[in-house]
Design goal:
Helix content: 25-40%
Oligomer: single chain
Strand order of the largest sheet: 2-1-3-4-5
CATH superfamily: Response regulator
Low-confidence stretches: none
Strand content: 15-25%
CATH topology: Rossmann fold
Largest sheet: 5 strands, parallel
């Protein structure tokens, strides 16, 4: 929860529909009562943040408190989106959790260098994803104070 009454708005940038369903189901299973929004690539992510196109109504596209970002997406990948978000003074304070299939040292190092707040390699099973989501929930929504909450 964000503050006393407002749920944390989590924006998931993920192009793989199976991963989206896995993550959504994991949030439900672990009972993380937050507002999980989904965009399919970096361009949609930037449109959401900047309130463009179908995201122009702020009541339907509220500012995220945290972003879950896949690195490997079409059109604009997560690496490009991360750089653009962290270069913008309006959005650079939004914590970004990289949640990707990549395990490469280069992706890990570069993500932190570009401003990611943490890097998680996606688990492949539902049970493992539930464990990761539960730990994310505990850390990011109970222990850590988010900047806009």
């Amino acid at each position: 929860m964000c503050g006393v009454s407002k749920p944390v708005v989590i924006l998931l940038a993920e192009d793989d529909e199976d991963d989206v369903v896995l993550i959504q189901d994991s949030f439900r299973k672990t009972k993380l009562m937050n507002d999980l929004r989904v965009v399919n690539d970096g361009i949609e992510l930037m449109d959401y943040l900047k309130g463009r196109g179908r995201f122009s109504d702020p009541s339907l596209s509220p500012r995220p408190d945290i972003i879950l970002l896949d690195l490997n997406m079409p059109r604009m990948d997560g690496r490009e989106a991360l750089r653009e978000i962290k270069a913008d003074p309006i959005f650079k304070d939004i914590p970004i959790i990289i949640l990707t299939t990549s395990k490469t040292h280069e992706d890990i190092y570069t993500s932190y260098l570009e401003g990611a707040n943490c890097f998680i390699t996606k688990p492949v099973t539902f049970q493992s994803m539930c464990e990761v989501v539960a730990k994310l929930g505990e850390y990011w929504f109970q222990i850590v104070k988010l900047p806009n909450c």
